[in-house]
Each structure stands twice: as structure tokens, then as C-alpha cells.
Amino acid sequence: MKNTLWRFIDDKGAFASDNAHRINTLYFPLCNGYPFMSSVTPDLHGDIKTGNDTFLLEPASRIDLSNSKVSRNFWIHINPDKIWSATGVSKDLSAIKNDRVNLKAGLLWQEITRQNRNIGLQSKITSFVPASGEPVEIMLVTITNISGLELKFTATAAIPIYGRSADNLRDHRHVTSLLNRLQVERFGVAVTPTLLFDENSHKKNQTTYFVFAFDEDEGAPEYIYPTQEEFCGEGGDLETPEVIYRDLLPDANKRTQGKEAMAGLRFREKKLKHQESISFTIIMGITTQKDSPKTLFSKFDRLDKVRRSLDLTSEFWQDQSSKIKLETNNASFDNWFRWVSIQPLLRKIFGCSFLPDFDYGKGGRGWRDLWQDCLSLLLDNPEEARDLLSNNFSGVRIDGSNATIIGQNGGEFIADRNNISRVWMDHGVWPLVTTLLYIHQTGDIKILLQKTGYFNDNRLSRGKIYQGTILEHILVENLTQFFNVGRHNIIRLQGADWNDGLDMARENGESVAFSSMYAKNLDNICELLLKLGQEKIFIFKELAILLDTLSNKPIDYSSVGAKQKLLNKYLNAVNTAPCGQVATIPGNRLIDDLKRKSCWLSGHIRKDEWLRGGFFNGYYDNEGKRLEGKSGGITRMTLTGQTFAILSGISTDSQTKSIYEKASLYLKDKESGAFHLNTDFKKELHALGRAFSFSYGEKENGAFFNHMSVMFGYSLYSRGFAKEGFEVLDSISRMALDAGTSKIYPNLPEYFNADGRGMYSYLTGSASWYVLTLLTQVFGVRGVYGDLMLEPKLNAEQFKNTKEISITANFAQKRIRVIYSNPLQKDFGKYSIKKISLNNKIIANDINSCRYLFPRKKFLSLAAKNHNMIEVNLG
Ligand code: G1P
Q1: Could you report the per-residue pLDDT of 606-641, keeping only the tens digit for each?
Q2: From 369, 744, 759, 770, mutation site for ligand 1 pocket: most ligand atoms within 8 A of C-beta
Q3: Pocket, ligand 1, Cβ cutoff 6 A
Q4: 613 neighbors 665 (Cβ within 8 angstroms)
Q5: pTM (two decimals)
Q6: For the ranges 4-8, 101-105, 394-398, 487-491, which has the lowest average pLDDT?
Q7: What distance in angstroms lies between residue 440's CA and the mean position of ligand 1's atoms?
Q8: Alpha-carbon gap, residue 116 to 124, rounded angstroms
Q9: Cβ–Cβ < 8 Å for 466, 454
């Protein structure tokens, strides 16, 4: 495997490429927590926005990156008639075709160099968004004379300002331009549309879009063209603007208001001797009245300020990318992992909407994404996450469903942005998964007793808002689902489960995959309750309806009808709001009830869903037909159906072995070793979901879908199948790093398609699971009720050509570097821990086990420093 697209140029994630500009679909993310979000391609296409209603550059989907004329352009005019786009976006291809282009990029900046011998100039354009949080993107252009002669030229920055909502791309595009009010300022153009256009209820617009620029000596542009109409002219366009090609000066008499806006900023003529350089800086911002464009501009109005900001930005992202740091026998992998490890943060900022591949949604994250991204965000500083978790729980409804979209800072819950009423049946699973991780990392089991509200403002009759414990919220989510079964006594699929594409089986579909997870959750709650040791548990009175074994009328769990009836009784009881009375439940009886439910469901799945083919069935469709197994002469199998059977502990070890064999047979790609999300069903499944109407090998229809692949890997590791887990994870990183084929920058994309191409870069839940798997399973560094567990599941292969490998992370607010040596090159299962030392002091010797539990207290008393070295010898 040779990466022919780019190469790492340091050990801090920076990479270089000579041919990135030849790939139409490549984009790079730039952002800060404002949230200010940009995507930028090698020729500076891509958009800029702070939200769905506030795009500075016109929204760009994947296809627009190459098709649209909108970009950040920078024109050079050498008298009398040489014209060059220093960004490489010009209709005059003869002027740019011989450009030598190089890209360098790092965390989080992009630098493009173009050299044009014919013109005699080189441009170097560095793009970044200051990590300090100002809502601006900065473009630093350095022009160097590479000819042997002195050159004179004028430079014109050309940024078309869209300045409105993504919705207006088609909805009243022209009418919304009539709202534009343009202000020509000394350093550029500011646009403040009069209204936020929405026919339901127009609102006064508070947002200003601006593009200001200055040259080397902080000089302002000499001429400003504030409209596209004037800049492009009647016969030109953004790729052949008439003012550039005909060397026209702005016409002071032209009307400017109510037109498509433009920041055409032409600088005074410059003179450069051989090898001399000169810089221009362009600041593109989106601001509300709080910070005026001038105030924001004043922070970056000198070259030294801009360079300092660039350094700080790079330092910020370097820090983020080294929170969990690897030193393995593969430097490229370690570098790649830096990019993966910042992806959860990118998704926190961008949500699932604002990069070119993600041209859906209107911002914020979905419920399951929120919780799963927390998995890795938690690992860094779980102690700080308490409030965040508690707040997230207030998105749960009393009927067990939840808000589906969560706004930028987690504070804002939205039932459904598109007003589609649907329930994703997996949603109840994730909060406990994440809370469990939090409890293990911190030991803070008391968080379960923390109180928080429910979504939808559940007012009690007396007007007070009801608040219940987090434990109660978890119970609501898991108990309601236990009873919410379809005709096979498996939990109903409803709107879909993890797989968004299974959305056409609302009435009768069932998800065995997530039923397994609910069974596991019920069991986990029992374990938590035991640990919590509360004699009495307080819940709102109606919830006790679902604890049927505590009543004198326990129901028969094998009766679908009885389950549905009980659930309806509960839903009717909480229809308006809980009555406000509290039921007191003895802790041990609650455990007993939950245990019965969990055992019943696991047993049922084990008994009825294991297929003769040697793997599990994961679904029933809307006609009540089983999805997996042999049908019409072909074997149908889904990775999801297997992953959760393994993860939940429902599969026995021998079943897990069989599942892996069958997955290798039916789902594994011979060449890459990666696993398809499902086999090719060779037909659409309108009784199951849209996924099977996608062409096979794309997205949720049989792609190498990384989110599920990583969870598959995690589940195998968690059950001690380290060799198999490694194969799964390894296939993913190899595909990503084979960038000649995957055609992506270093990151973990949502999926690889059948051509091996990486799709939907950066904003995917697979990154969070990848980080989690690597730290807590592969390197085995994790908390167990607050104590530090070391249980590496490493293979001999990972020690090839190296004496030791290490991972650096935070635990109990201390920085630890855990170094594993494996001199005998043994595989997991064959080695045990021979010696452990902390900061050169031996902690344990000859432990006849492959794991070691370091009590938190002992760890804290010995680990006084910020940086701690834990050496673990395997043998
Ligand atoms: C995306 C969604 C995720 C969903 C998955 C499968 O995955 O974000 O919620 O479960 O598709 O439909 P991701 O891009 O996070 O890998």
C-alpha cells in the first residue's frame, strides 16, 4: 500500500501533497467553537457559515466544490494584459494550466502554493479560522516574484458574499438579494440584509457579513467593487470578471443596494524585485451586533497579529490532537490517529450538517450522535462532564422517547427539526452506555441520584416542573422499550434504529440488534444498583407500572399482548404529566425485577434468533419477515445484527467465533479485509428501509461503514477476541491511509464505498468509537468504578520492529503515559503482566494475569506529578 495522495511531513499531523488539487471532492475543515465553520478546497472553493441561516459564502455541497463558480479568488493583473488567478480559479485555463501546485495542511490550517513561471509569480495562501473564537476566516496571501525581472502588478481579492440562509439557495434567491444593504468601508465591504427571510414570519436580521483586507503595510484597498453585477459585468462571471479582464475602475454612480454582494478589493499597484515577496490579508467574518466588523477586524489588522493567531491556532489544535497520543511501531498510523482524535470535537462544532458531504440537517447533532461523541470527549476530562451529562438527560421524555436534535452547546433541545414525528428505537440505549463510561472513569456513581428535568416541560398540576434522578431517566428509557415489542416479541423498530436507513418498517419492524443492547442495559442497571447500594429507590409513581414483578400481577413476558397492554397503561398514565407522587421501591426488589427482564430478553434472543447458518438474525421487516439467513438462494447477513449480539454478551464464545467466521465469509472484502455493513440483498426492501434503494456498496447499503465496523471491532475486543478485533480496526486504518484509493485527507470517514473511496470525511461517530476502542480495549487503559484498569489486548504484530509501544492519556486528572514492552513478542492470551512500575517504582511483580487493577487512591497517592510513566512488561 502506497499513499500516493499525500505524505506526512512531521510528527504533528502535518501533511503535503502535490496532487490534491486534482481531486474534485477533497475539502478541508476550518473552524472554531464560536461556532465558525468553513470548508476549503485546494482552489479555495467551499463555504463559510456560523449556522444554517448565516452563510457568508454560498452553501457548497460535494458537487459544488468543482462545479460552482463561487470561491475565494485572488486576481493578479500584470500590465498590460497578463491576468492570473492566484487561487487557480479562472476560465482562462491557459493562464493557470502550468501552475505547479503544492498543498500543505496541518491542525487546522491549509497552505497552498502555486507557481506560475509564465507569469513569474508564486502565491502562497494560508487559510485558517482563529482558535481564539472570533467568527472570522483568515486568508493570508503571499505573492513572490520568481521571475528574473522586476514585476509590477495589481492584486484584487474577490469574495462573493452570499449573506443569508442556506434555505434561500432556492427559496427566493433573488428576492433575498433585494434585502441586501451594502456598506463600503475603508478596508472592504459589510453586508447587513434587512430581514431574515421566512414567509412564515420574517424577522429583522441582526447579522452582518464582511470581508476586509489589507496589504503588507496595513494599506487599505484602493478600489472597492461591492456588487457582483459590477464586478463580473454583463458578459463576465466570477471566473472571468470584467473589471479584471477589462481593467475597469468602480463606477461611483452605480446603484449598490439590493444586489448580490461582492467584496472585490483592489490594491494599489505593487512592485516586486526578483525573489521579493509581499503579503495581503483577507478577513472574512460573520457577526451580530455585539461585535462590529471593525472591532473584529482590529484584532487581525496587522501581519504580526495574523501570524500570532495562526501560531496560536496551530498550538490549540496540536493540544487537542495530543490529548490521547500514540507511539506505536507505525508513525503514519500515529499521525493519522491525531486527526481521528479531533474528529469528535469537529462534530461538536460542525454538528452533522456543515461540511460539503453533509448537505442535510440544519445544525446541531442527533441524540445518538451526541451521546456517542461524548464517549471520547469524556475520556479527556470526565470530571468536567457531570453537568453536561445531567443536562443531556433532560432531553428524555417521560414516555421514554427524547428530543432528536440537540443544539450547539447541548442546551437547546428540538423535538425534530423537520417536524417529522418519529422515534428511533435505539435512542434509549446510548445514554446509559455513556453514563456507564463516565461512572467507570470517575467512580462517581452518585451521579445516578442527581436530579434533572424531562423534555417537553412536564409541569405537574401544581405548575412545578417535575425533576427526577438520572437513574429514573435511565429506567424510563429502558423499561418502556422492554415492553414495546412487535409480533416476535422483539423490540419494535419504529422510525429506525442506529441504521437511519431502516426507516420503512414503522408498524411491524423489529430490531433484534438493539433488543440485545436493551437486555444488556437492564443487566448493567442491576450492576449499578448493586454498587450504589441504596436501600430505597424513589421514582415517580407511574413508573412503577413497568415494574410489574413487584406488583401482585406480574405479566407473562412471552405474551406480546400483555406487554403492549402494560406499556399502554403506562403511556396513558403519563399522557399529560406525572401526577407528582413518588413511589419508594426497595433497591433489591428493583434489581430483581430488572434482572428477570434482562434474562428473559437475552434468553429469548439466544433461543429464537440464532440462525442455522451460524450467526444471529438482526431484524424483522414490516411484513414480519425475518431479514437474515438464507433467502431465495442467497445468504443475507448484517454486521449490525452480529455486533450487538457480541457486545451485549448474548452470543456465547463459540457463537462469537462462528459469527466472526461467517462475517469473514459473507461480509469481508477479500482485497482490503474490511467488512461490508450487509451482504447484497439484490433487491430493494420497501418493507424495511430506504437503505436498500441506495446502490449496493454505498452508505447504509453494504458500504464499509466505519461506525459499525469500529463497534464490531470494539465488541470483539471486549469479548477477548483481540486478533479478530485487530483485523477489523487494521483494515479501517489501512483503507484510510491508502489515500491514492480512498482519496481523502487523513481522517476516518463515515464509510468507504465499493471503490474504496472515503466518503463523508470528518463528521462521523466512528471516530469517537475508534478512540474509545484504542484506549480502553486495545491498550486496555480504562476506569473500573474509578480505579485504573490496565488490560492490554495487543498482538505480537503490534510489537514488530519495536521494543515498546505507548499511549498517553488522562486519568483521574493526571497525565499518564502507559508503555508496554513485550520482549517475547507474545500475543494477547499468551502473555501475562510480569511487572508494573509507576515513575520507576515497582508497583507489582509477576502478576499471573493479563490485567491489573490499580486502586484509584493508591494511584493518586503515588502519581504526584502531572506527567506519569507507567511501564508494563508483558511476558
Ligand atoms: C451516521 C449518523 C448516525 C447513524 C449512522 C447510520 O453515522 O451520524 O447517527 O447511526 O449514520 O445510519 P456516522 O456518520 O456518525 O458514522
Answers
A1: 999 999 999 999 999 999 999 999 988 999 999 999
A2: 369
A3: 352, 366, 368-369, 498-501, 700, 707, 750, 760, 764-766
A4: no
A5: 0.97
A6: 394-398
A7: 26
A8: 12
A9: yes
